[in-house]
Design brief:
477 residues; Carbamate kinase; 6-stranded antiparallel sheet; 17 strands; binds adenosine-5'-diphosphate; binds aspartic acid; binds magnesium ion
């Protein structure tokens, strides 16, 4: 019986983006084995592959099957090259290349179907999007085997059972847990490293689904919760969760500890480093997560945990932003007397399948204001106009309208909102930069404040707020 602690390690697209990156991943796997862990490896598709697959479905829809074939050729070449660079044995190479050919042919066939019908259903999009992960795990597992580490590739379609919500499917716990245990535990007990696809899952009848873009983090968390594992490590291309997106704020620094609630807010409001659903399966199980850098593996990264000693310290820890939003306002003096306006408004929005990332603080009962993704604005306005056609006719509601693109900037830190002076410092900072705050979010959680600003002010606002974190860290240091 294998008594080693189980460790689920997920590697993102950049971490498996080429043969050099895969070599690093192999070294990390070797190291944790030496440290006495039994790892389960979860992989994303190689960087850019999921995008390329989905772009091809657009080409197919536009009746450009010739372009699909070009993409298929490029994908084949890219994966062949990694095989050639990593695997010395001819037999293994031939075997892998056959598998790559099969998967890419499947991709081309699905695209051909789209080309013929002129339409891509969410179901076929999921079948296509998941092929990148299937390619990646086959290559990496074979590479481990070829390096003397016994490994087996497994498609998560055999492990995680979901409903039929294609493109953002919901896992069904009992069924998935049983499959995960039945399939993975015997493999682990034989000291074989499972190399599992992130991102994909399947319905009970075996149709491929995906967990949503960036969903491999969530896959790792699900496996971690179902096995259960001792820890889940998310390996990415930065030194952990940082005080801001390093692409916007070059001097952002790594945060050593964050609570699940803090990372939850950060991820929900745009910090791409961890998928927002990742923490959910691990909270109840009390399993911790570490976020670490494949390209700097000696860095300890960030620890994500239920509570920290410093949970109630009220400091600003990080700032994040999310583009592509619009604010929708329903206004009218007569609204004061109309019962259930808010409920009906959000009902009408929900009916369009749009989620509302924030509801803003209204100064009176004469308006309701909330954000929706820019891409859903038209549908949402149509639905609201229908729902309130009577009130619009009687002028109880004067108008329902939306802004141009705005950005939501969210500032995160436990108990921050109840700490006196923080909001003042944030608004002071923005004011000194001449940045206009369009709205402030009414959130229920104590750990974040969101503000809505014009799209053009995003970088300046994030950098300005980040200065508040830098000056605090300098004082502490
Ligand atoms: P992976 O492919 O490993 O899943 P992602 O691209 O999904 O990687 O997420 C990592 C990226 O998230 C980083 O390269 C960084 O640009 C971005 N990012 C955004 N906000 C943050 C943040 N607060 N801390 C760290 N990274 C962030
Ligand atoms: N490959 C998938 C995506 O690009 C899943 C992931 O990387 O997490 O969305
Ligand atoms: Mg990611």
């Amino acid at each position: 019986m294998n008594e080693k602690p189980l460790l689920v390690m997920k590697f993102g697209g950049t971490s498996v983006g080429n043969s050099d990156a895969m070599k690093r991943v192999k070294e990390i796997v070797k190291d944790v084995l030496h440290e006495g862990w039994m790892p389960v490896v979860v992989l994303s598709a190689m960087a850019g592959v999921t995008d390329e697959l989905l772009r091809s479905t657009e080409m197919a829809k536009n009746r450009r099957y010739d372009q699909v074939l070009q993409a298929a050729g490029a994908l084949t070449t890219r994966h062949y090259q990694v095989v050639d660079e990593l695997i010395p044995e001819t037999e293994r190479k031939v075997f892998l290349k056959q598998q790559i050919d099969q998967l890419i042919s499947m991709f081309a066939e699905y695209c051909r179907a789209i080309d013929i019908i002129g339409e891509a259903t969410p179901r076929v999009l999921d079948a296509i999007a998941g092929i990148g992960e299937m390619l990646c795990v086959r290559i990496f597992a074979e590479y481990l085997n070829s390096s003397g580490i016994p490994a087996r590739s497994i498609d998560a379609t055999k492990l995680i059972v979901t409903d039929h919500s294609y493109q953002a499917a919901h896992p069904i716990r009992e069924k998935s847990e049983r499959k995960v245990k039945e399939t993975l535990l015997p493999i682990l007990q034989s000291n074989i490293v499972p190399v599992v696809t992130g991102f994909i899952a399947a319905t009970e009848d075996g149709t491929t689904t995906t967990l949503g873009r960036g969903g491999s983090d969530y896959s790792a968390a699900l496996l971690g919760a179902y096995l259960p594992a001792a820890e889940v490590w998310i390996w990415t291309d930065v030194d952990g969760v940082m005080t801001a997106d390093p692409r916007i704020v070059p001097d952002a620094t790594t945060i050593d500890v964050l609570t699940f609630r803090e990372i939850g807010e950060l991820a929900y409001y745009g910090a791409k480093v961890v998928h927002p659903k990742t923490m959910q399966p691990l909270i109840d199980a009390g399993i911790i997560i570490r976020v670490r850098n494949t390209f700097n593996p000696t860095h300890p990264g960030t620890l994500l945990t239920l509570e920290t000693d410093r949970q109630l310290d009220g400091e600003i820890k990080a700032v994040t932003s999310i583009k592509g939003q619009a604010l929708v306002t329903i206004e009218g003096r007569g609204m004061l007397g109309v019962p259930g306006v808010a409920a009906r408004a959000f009902g009408a929005v929900a009916a369009t399948g749009t989620s509302v990332p924030l509801i803003t603080q209204a100064s009176s009962e004469q308006s309701i204001c909330f954000a929706v993704p820019l891409s859903s604005v038209e549908t949402v306005l149509r639905s609201l106009n229908e729902a309130f056609s009577r009130e619009l006719a009687t002028r109880d509601i004067d108008r329902i309208w939306a802004t141009d693109e705005v950005v939501i900037v969210t500032i995160v830190g436990a108990a921050m909102r109840s700490t006196p002076g923080i909001a003042g410092r944030i608004f002071g900072k923005l004011g000194s930069q001449g940045i206009n705050v369009i709205a402030i979010a009414q959130g229920s959680s104590e750990v974040s404040i969101s503000i809505v600003i014009d799209k053009a002010d995003e970088q300046r606002a994030v950098r300005a707020i980040h200065e508040l974190i830098v000056s605090k860290n300098e004082k502490a240091g």
